[in-house]
Amino acid sequence: MIEQLQHLPGIGPKSAQRLALYILKRPEEEVKALAIALMEAKTQVGFCTICFHLSADPICEICRSPNRDSNVLCVVSESKDVIALEKTREYRGKYHVLGGTISPMDGIGPDQLHIQPLVRRVSQQKIEEVIIAISPSVEGETTTLYVGQLLKPFTKVTRIAFGLPMGGDLEYADEVTLARALEGRRELD
Amino acid sequence: MYLRSLHLRQFRNYLDQSVEFSAPKTILVGDNAQGKSNLLEAVELLSTLRSHRTSRDRDLIRDVDAIGQISAQLERDLGSVDLAITLRNSSRRTVALNGQSLRRQLDFLGTLNIVQFSSLDLDLVRGGPEQRRNWLDSLLIQLEPIYASILQQYTHILRQRNALLRQETGVRTQVATSNQPPASELALWDAQLAVAGTRVIRRRSRVVQRIAPLATYWHRQISGSTEELMISYLPNVELQSDDPTIVQQTFLAKIQERAIAEQYQHTTLVGPHRDEVNFSINQTSARQYGSQGQQRTLVLALKLAELKLIEDVIGEPPLLLLDDVLAELDLNRQNQLLDAIQDRFQTLITTTHLGSFDAQWLNSSQVFTVKAGQVL
User: Fold this and answer.
1) CB of B269 less than 8 A from some CB of A
2) What is the overall mean pLDDT for chain A?
């Protein structure tokens, strides 16, 4: 069991041991509930056929919701980014999850990502704006540029701004972030 | 700046060793493989977070299961700073300033400045271009710590682009130019490479321009005004103007020029990873024609120029680390070095025997004997 737990991200040998010993100490029904929950999640949760976000149904809640604005699409690399953006409750549009970023070293090219379905979505539906929200790493940057070039003929494409965290002190920001923040400056309104 | 003390725990062949530096010059004497260079390596790590001998932290730790630690107390003009690096076998190292652990290692760079001079540097002139690029890059990181992340980004893009070139079997359809939007995947990497590469080129060119006159000055001093040293930066992508957009255009044009060759060789042929630095003495390339003596003079001039440049930029004299190199210099050059550093630059020297030292050197130095991981 320790070995199995060690495969999980962020779990080293010590944590794995602690988790295993904890599970052994719990009452049987509690452990059973955990095991069932794990299996159920694995068998039931798949990907939404429209946006590729994690979903128990063929079409996810966000794509089904009539309250969401179908004219705005936010492109992210992973499902965890959807969860992060949903927490803000500021975004009312829909999503598209690419499933990663372009990285030739890992053998991931545009064909391995959900880019074709995205282009189809944007070209066939009436979409007013596509917001690209991908981390500004080397791979993220390339993916953003790639997706941006493909979608520009169909609609307005924007990307989220990068810069200083809220509550952060200017003097504690690193130079790279500061330079990005300067690049993306805007007029005071 | 002045390194007051150094404490090594489970580092290389040291179990637990403190060293107090009480004189501006410290000579570490001992047989080979006793730990002299390990001590200098610890100082190098505190300064650059890199070691020229290994890139794996596991090599730096003495006992397999232990945690290695280097800590030091440094006096700077603005007060004293405590530096610490903790090295682990299987996880990331952590760094701390004044007991505060830092989230970004970049913030640790630039606290302690050093100039290293080891017997390996004597190959700087004759060795491959990679050695000269590394020399330039280490100097730049000390002067402009952000360069470390610029270079890292460039290398990362380069690796991705090379991986793509190895996969691509088809003919490339289109090359990115400044007014045409990039279409193929490779063209996107071209654009990224050009942007990051331009940053590297411009900074390298700037540092060469600054160090060249200093090195020429020192070279004239050491050689007795008979020889004129010229240092020139020969970037792979020509630098006709300092305007980044123009450099990027030149960069992309050159990629286009070499596109077919790149397809056959499956690797990136254009960019600052193929830069060269040329040293010439009286207009003759030192690499091909310089004698042993001339090369020594040249490297010594470069090192003295580094000291001066770092002092000018940082506003405080850096440390000088002389690893097994003094014995390689004749008495005349030793004296030149002594005159240049006087007591202004704190100097740590390793040597196997004190015989080749000038009496003047010995009188002004603190001498330690290093034996089997102990400093006596």
Assistant:
1) no
2) 90
Q: Which of B313, B48, B319, B284 is nearest to B206 (CA)?
A: B313
In which band, very low, low, confident or very high, does the pLDDT at B183 lie, cut at 50, 70 and 90?
low
CB B308 within 8 A of CB B297: no
Q: Which ipTM value was assigned to this complex? A: 0.75
Cβ–Cβ of A104/B183 closer than 8 Å?
no
Three-state SS at B222: helix
Contacts of B306 (CB under 8 A, 6+ apart): B115, B139, B211
> Does the pLDDT value for residue B100 go beyond 50?
yes
- Tracing tokens 């279409």 back to the chain, one arrives at B183
The region of weakest confidence among A128-142, A174-188, B86-100 is A174-188
C-alpha triplet B120, B123, B124: angle, nearest 5°: 100
Distance between B106 CA and the closest CA of chain A, angstroms: 8
B92 shares contact with chain A (CB less than 8 Å) = no
Region of poorest pLDDT, from A9-18, A116-125, B65-74: A9-18
Residue of B nearest to A141 (CA): B192
Yes or no, beta carbons of A142 and B189 under 8 Å apart: yes
What count of other Cβ atoms lies within 10 Å of the Cβ of residue B339? 10
Q: What is the mean pLDDT of residues A74-84?
A: 95
Nearest-10 crossing angle of helices B185-223, B331-341: 100
% of residues, chain A, pLDDT over 90? 61
Q: Averaged over B100-128, what is the pLDDT?
A: 89
What pTM, to 2 d.p., does this model score?
0.83
| Mean pLDDT, rounded, for B111-127 | 90
Count of CB atoms within 10 A of residue A54's CB? 16
Instruction: Provide the mean pLDDT of chain B.
Output: 89
Instruction: Encode pLDDT of A30-71 as tens digits.
Output: 999 999 999 988 888 899 999 999 998 899 999 999 999 999
For residue B107, the chain A residues in CB contact (below 8 A) are 174
B354, two tokens: 């004190």
Pick from B149, B189, B191: CB nearest A176: B149
One-letter identity of residue B304: L
- The SS3 assignment for A158 reads strand
- Domains, in order of start, for chain A: 2-44 (1.10.8.420), 60-187 (3.40.1360.10)
Residue B309 phi/psi, 5-degree rounding, is -65, -45
Chain A residues interacting with chain B (CB cutoff of 8 angstroms): 12, 102-105, 107, 109-110, 138-139, 141-142, 145-146, 149, 152, 174-176
Domains of chain B from N-terminus onward: 1-113+316-376 (3.40.50.300), 122-314 (1.20.1050.90)
The one-letter amino acid code at B49 reads L
User: How many Å separate Cα B224 from the centre of its chain?
Assistant: 28
Contacts of B70 (CB under 8 A, 6+ apart): B6, B7, B8, B9, B11, B42, B45, B46, B83, B84, B85, B87
B279 and A CB contact within 8 Å: no
